[in-house]
Amino acid sequence: MVILRNLAHARWRARIKLAELEEDSACVQPVAESRLVVDTLCRAIDRLPPEQAAVMRLVLAGEVSPQVIAQRLRLPPGTVMSRLARARASLRATMGMGARAHVSELL
User: Fold this and answer.
1) Least enclosed by CB within 10 Å: which of 4, 48, 68, 73?
2) How buried is residue 94: exposed, middle or buried, by Cβ count under 10 Å (0-12/13-18/19+)?
3) Smallest Cα–Cα separation from 92: which of 61, 66, 56, 63?
4) Crossing angle of the two packed helices 50-60 and 66-73, in degrees rounded to 10
5) Contacts with 84 (C-beta within 8 Å, 6 or more apart), sequence order
């Protein structure tokens, strides 16, 4: 069975047409700058007031729903939204971004 499976895979691979990579598509963007930005962002979050930092850490961990954050922190959703807005405004100022800029633009 193993031999038959390997033969089937070999035949399948032989049918696949591979495209030649172009020079510009073969390049990988450096990640050092992104890592520095993320490190700066994490340090900026650490300098936030504790209430705002707690909310932003949940967002940083991948939680995007204010309702879920409110449940986890046992707070009203409006309080979470307020803290989130204040934290984002503070982070934009700290990171030198405009009022409407998004952190993902730095990455």
Assistant:
1) 4
2) middle
3) 56
4) 130
5) 52, 55, 56, 59, 66, 69
The pair of three-digit structure tokens given for residue 60, joined into one six-digit string: 């940083």
pLDDT in tens, the chain (107 residues): 889 888 888 888 888 777 776 766 666 667 788 888 888 989 999 999 999 999 999 998 887 788 999 999 999 999 999 999 999 999 988 888 766 555 445 44
Q: How far apart are CA 36 and CA 53, in angstroms?
A: 19
Torsion, CA 93, CA 95, CA 97, CA 102, rounded to 10: -110
Q: What was the pLDDT predicted at 107?
A: 41
pLDDT at 24: 65
What is the rounded CA–CA span in Å between residue 92 and residue 98?
Answer: 7
Contacts of 57 by beta carbon, 8 Å cutoff, 6+ apart: 45
